[in-house]
Description:
It contains five helices and no strands. The protein has 84 residues and is mainly alpha-helical. It has one domain (2-77). The chain is globular.
Amino acid sequence: MYVLAYLACVAAEDGDVHRAGRLWGAVEAEEARRPLGAWEGEREQYAARVLAHADAHLEQGLRRGRELPLQAAIEEGLGDSDTP
C-alpha cells in the first residue's frame, strides 16, 4: 500500500491527477477488502497529498482505480501498464 500510495502522491503532485486517482482508488479498494494494519495509522498523510488535487479527473481516476485488481494497479504503478 505504501508504494502505491506514494506513487499516487507523486502523480498528483506532478499534475497527472487521473493516474493519481487510479492508483489511490486501488488503495481504497484494497482497504475495503481487508484490514491493513499499520497502514491505517499512516493513511491520512498520503490521502491529504492526493486528495488536495481533487477535481473531475481525479474523481474519474478514483472510480476506475477502485475497479482495478491489485496486481494491475501494481503494474501500472511500476510503469508496466498501457492503461490510459
